[in-house]
Amino acid sequence: MRLYEQTLPAMVEHGLLVESCPVRLADIMPCHDPKRARSFSKERNHYRERHCPPFEEKLRCLIPPPPDYQIPVRWPESLRKIWFNNTPHNKIAELKSDQGWMVQEGDYFVFPGGGTMFSEGAERYVQKLEKYIPLRTSAIRTALDIGCGVASFGACLINKEVLTMSVAPRDSHKAQIQFVLERGLPAVVGMLATQRLPFPSLSFDLVHCSRCLVPFAAFNGSYFIEVDRLLRPGGYFVLSGPPVNFQGKEREYEVLQEFVVEKMCYSLIGAVDKTVIWQKPLNTSCYRAREKQVPSFCHEDDPDNAWNTELVECITRPSVNAIDTLLDQPNWQKRPDMIPKRLLEARNVESAEFDKDTRRWGRRIRHYVETLKIGFGTSRYRNVMDMNALYGGFAANLMSRNDPVWVMNVIPTTGPNTLSTIYDRGLLGVVHDWCEAFSTYPRTYDLLHVAPLQPFTTLDKRCSLAEVMVEMDRILRPEGTIIIRDTPTMLSRVSKIAKAIQWKFEIFDPEPGTSGKERIFVGTKVFWRAEVVESQ
To answer: Using DSSP, how many helices (H) and how many strands (E) does the chain show?
Structure first.
């Protein structure tokens, strides 16, 4: 029996190294496996959603890099070019070369900043949008790009201090999100199909769709209703491409306009060529004044419930207080250190508790940098994940330092759903169940942070800590960093598993003033080649 056919806890207990998976699995996403997807219905693209393997089919081996993999190009140079051998999938470059998505130049893929709907380039496209959307002001902070391609749109918004979450499925183009993350931009694999996207309600100032081919008015408008759930009051929806002013799509466009304007009360802000811009109303008064209450308000629905939750055909009903607090928010630059009013009202969190958490993370990050010599503030780290983010204090303090990073704040399904707090602070994140593989490609993060591991220990009946750490290894880049804060007992378990998956690590004392027995595990994923591990 090969080692990867045994359970991971058994390997660890016997002091065995976890073996390398076959090289053909170098880009595997366990919950987005095209072979498994074939067994699911193609209706409404259900087969392209998350479908995780049963226990007996879970990976019990380490994902190797491609044969000629190199340490990724550092930020900000990676925004314009990446190593070809790290993502050796030339299909997009070949099919979209005339549209300026990306081109191969020697050892690199280069990103000219084009796109199917960006005939003059994404920069010029964004300039046209600025006539209608205040992108240069602090009013726009978070954006969602559905069907993002290689994130030409999100890349253009960086200079405007807009954080863009790019979303695309694993489809015929195969590696869209892999390219986006290799460039150093926020992204997650997903699509509008039958379930909600893994984001809270009222979280984005802007939702963008450029030739994403989502039939927003179909299925009683459930796709557009999902966009409406995600948009903040006064937020903007930009649709570029079919059916907007496309020959043969006239009737579809008429139906969409009627649904968006008459049934959902959006205002038409502007139209340029094949692009239309709508704005969400500031309150619910228009909905109530409609002659026909279709779509109706949902009677029983948690608008922030976004994990394995089916799309609905009714309008989620945010509280009046939620709308008022969002409209009353300060500019995003002031938000990282201010407790969001939604958190105060929804979870009875005291302002003093929130402020204490923010100050605590400031001390912790100073300790990481000054004492543990972790290279925040350098090009060493760009893609960072906080696997148990709570209020987002770790990410907020990195942002306050102006570090050249972005942080994927993950709220585990095993704890309180505080993801709306993350977005209200001007940050990005998703909800996730750590007993399942994350919706990303292998080797996409430079640093993983966990404090504490306690939420994952509650998963033991469904999955083991070893399985969680093997998943961490999958999404971490070679020579990437792992920081885990927990008790000595927990870190003893972590250390045993870390040896089995060949991480190098040390355990350090915490910063002065830390209560309890917490210690800090700092590990590094060793850069190995498949043939080296398989020979051991």
So the answer is: 18, 17
